[in-house]
């Protein structure tokens, strides 16, 4: 049991929301102790049977991941634990994004609750605290700017949909996870005039910049910082440059597909799945068949690695017809996620 209730230093810090109160529960902030990381891992792993469970984790993995939240989340300020009868039964955290080129801020609430404890008003208390913490940050750092609260859940998880609807949130976007079983891969050759080259460390920044540029006409694009770039480089579940497929037109990056394989996720779910991360074509090279060729090439490569399926996530309102492209290439929808929003009021 962590006996640090975080009262000693926060009274003078305007971007720290007060700790909540709920009969039978004790709340305290993240301190960075070994016990905190152990509690996070215990709660995450306890949710293995939930539909939105991602993968089992370890203290080492979690400690590494939490070092790279950057400015979006200050662990000691933006993470809260809930304890009942000496057992930590939940934690929550918020993170922040800023709309591209606009003084508009989005605060994402994430709740991790041990099975059996979605009761007693605990989830509502955690969400209310996340909202209060977002308001405190907004007042302290972005006073006068507009903002909103965000939440994400799977459409099939009725109790979460009901929970967030009652909290006053509205659905604003839908996201489909699509699966390819690698049984029938359509073949599209790389158009003439483009080169494929092994990805070198000296190219990482160029790939990052080109990818961000390609997504500028998509929904919900955020400002990217040096901290975001460093977080990308250090996310070993996602950043796997030996799998990257990048097309060059001379000295210019034209398109890319960035696959990744999460070993812990596959082990946790007893499957052999790869993910196609960002799939992007820069504007001057669109309409030349690069996306088809690169997706085809990536699927063939991943099949040779003895993967059994490949997944991707697509905005159902993608402005460039991505859903039709993926369907035509043999992807089928596995599940749908919902992004929810409630205006932030200071």
Compile the SSE list and pairings.
Layout: E1 26-29, H1 34-46, H2 59-66, H3 75-78, E2 79-84, E3 87-98, E4 104-113, H4 122-141, E5 146-154, H5 158-166, E6 170-180, E7 195-196, H6 204-214, H7 226-233, E8 245-249, E9 252-260, H8 263-269, E10 273-281, H9 290-304, E11 309-315, H10 322-328, E12 332-343
Parallel strand pairs: 4-5, 10-11
Antiparallel strand pairs: 1-2, 2-3, 3-4, 5-12, 6-11, 6-12, 7-8, 8-9, 9-10
Per DSSP, what share of the residues sits in E-state strands of 2 or more residues?
A: 25-35%
Number of strands: 12
Q: Examine the coordinates and then state which fold CATH places here, giving the name of the CATH topology of the largest domain.
A: Aminopeptidase
Question: Terminal Cα separation, in Å?
Answer: 34 Å
- Gross geometry: globular
Oligomeric state: single chain
SS content category:
alpha+beta
Structural Rg: 21 Å
**What is the residue-averaged pLDDT?**
92
Could you characterize what this model shows?
The protein is an alpha+beta fold. The chain folds into two domains: 143 residues, Gcn5-related N-acetyltransferase (GNAT) (Aminopeptidase, 3-Layer(aba) Sandwich); 160 residues, Gcn5-related N-acetyltransferase (GNAT) (Aminopeptidase). It is 29% helix and 28% strand. It contains ten helices and twelve strands. Strands 1-2-3-4-5-12-6-11-10-9-8-7 form a twelve-stranded mixed sheet, sandwiched between helices. The longest helix is centred in the middle third of the chain and has 20 residues. It is globular and about 65 Å long. It starts with 25 loop residues before the first strand and ends with a strand. About 2% of the residues have low confidence.
